[in-house]
Amino acid sequence: MTLPTRPSLQYRWQLRDDNGKPVLVYYGLRNPPRHTASALAVAPEIAMDVAALDGGRPLADLPQALTGHPDFLRLAEEGVIVDAADVRQAATPENRRQCTRCINDDHLIPGLEFDENGLCAFCQCYERAQEAGVSAGPQNFITEAELLDAARRNTRSRFDVMVLCTGGKDSTYLLWFLAKKLGLRVLAAAWNMPYTNDTCRENLRRAVALLPSVELIERTLPWDMVRQAMREQFAAIGAPCLCPTVAHVLFFPVAVEERIPFIMQGVEEVQLAVASYVMNELKSPGKAAQAAAPSQRDMTLGFFGMVANAPEPHPPYAMTAEFLHYQRAVRKGLEPLYRQLDQTLAAARRDPDIPVPELRRLKTNETYGTWKEVGELIKKEMAWEMPPEHKGLLHTSCRIETVKDYCQFMRFRNMRSTFFPQSIVEVSAGVYFGLISREEGLAELEHLGYHGEPAPLGPLLDDLGLRGQDPEGHGEMRFSLCDCGKCAG
């Protein structure tokens, strides 16, 4: 191995502390097979020296205790320490690299790597899974035949399935698919979140009117409670979002009480692309078959147990850390809501004979067709309307969705989180898996909240009483709203 002549730490690597142990954390996505190696331990005796490498000194002038250390050599071999001439520079809107297959780019996803053919690391992960014949993704998909068979055998409940719905594209399609196409008995459950747009509220009302077999239940929380929880979310995780966890907390106990076999929500496969293809190492079909898979009951209890009591993230810089921080912060802000969920989970764990609804999903890449086709279908069948202020088919129900986009982008850019900006990854996965064309994906990208402070942000800050507050005095909000360039790192 030839060592770099002027060693420098590659762009987007930062020295962090992991319970008293130094680690180098990568804020981006590396090319496979190193895509999961985003936090690398480094020996304490050289950690600070490695973090200070900036190409300013030639290799020969650096102490032998550093350059001869096994960790230095390992990091150089892995491309974490490189020559100063090979350090990547921050991309700009005018100077960025875009994937040749999808629409991901290294400006909106800083630290995104590409192969020699210009394919981004995300697309490489998708490609590897398909080539290996691995059925990636959550193991809770359910087929049309399985749903119909379960409904024929269901004598314990008035309902065959609960649908967590908002009136957006995905949950409206799910209501149509389950209630009208399959003829199932559906309980639609909606948390009337204050920032659901009015058009989608009406979409939900219209859907229930057009599907007379569907029963609707709604819950509305006091505005004072929601307002304070959103303020606390901003401080704790740098974003105000409470969805979809509040719906999980409110309605899982209802599904258990009603003995409903399944709970389903309008979440597309592309929204699970990172968990399905990026965070997990590939396993051969043989090894996957040999592994003892947990039952659907245990998987569901495990998920809602995490919602109720998310553990402290470890390692603290894993891609899952932000999600766990979010769950913990929601619980802290809305603690009184969790009593019934806690009691339901405790009872189900004590008594294995208590029926537990299975949390399931459709294989949307197969059932949907394209986003355009889904949109046309629900317009025809359900009189569904696009919110007038909304231009794309992703996340259609929330008025402050672009605020979430903006906060995620800023936190990732400022290296405060390893959680990728969510919407661009979802749209790009939609392009890769053929749900939208590349041109449609680029058009969707223009309407996400990545291109400057989104219009709903100011009114939201007014609503929450945060307008004019010093971001530095409100926890993590600083890293979401400060665009001074000094917060990075």
Brief rundown of the structure:
The protein has 489 residues and is an alpha/beta fold.
Spell out the key features of this protein:
489 residues, alpha/beta, Rossmann fold, 3 domains, 5-stranded parallel β-sheet, 3-stranded antiparallel β-sheet
Topology:
Layout: E1 7-9, E2 13-18, E3 21-26, E4 39-41, H1 44-51, H2 64-67, H3 70-77, E5 81-83, H4 121-131, H5 144-153, E6 161-164, H6 169-181, E7 186-191, H7 198-210, E8 215-219, H8 223-237, H9 245-257, E9 262-265, H10 273-278, H11 285-290, H12 296-308, H13 321-333, H14 339-350, E10 358-360, H15 364-367, H16 371-382, H17 401-413, H18 422-432, H19 438-446, H20 457-464, H21 477-481
Helix pairs in contact: 6-16, 8-13, 9-14, 12-14, 18-19
Stated plainly, the CATH topology of the largest domain is called Rossmann fold
Radius of gyration: 24 Å
Q: What structural category do the secondary elements indicate?
A: alpha/beta
With strands numbered from the N-terminus, the spatial order across the biggest sheet is: 8-7-6-9-10
Find the count of extended strands (DSSP E, 2+ residues).
10
The general outline is globular
Q: Architecture of the largest domain, according to CATH? A: 3-Layer(aba) Sandwich
Approximately what portion of the residues adopt beta-strand conformation?
A: 5-15%
End-to-end Cα distance: 30 Å
State the fourth-level CATH superfamily of the largest domain.
HUPs
List the uncertain runs. 284-290
Helix content: 40-55%
* Number of helices in the DSSP assignment: 21
> What's the mean pLDDT score?
92
CATH class of the largest domain: Alpha Beta
Major sheet summary line: 5 strands, parallel
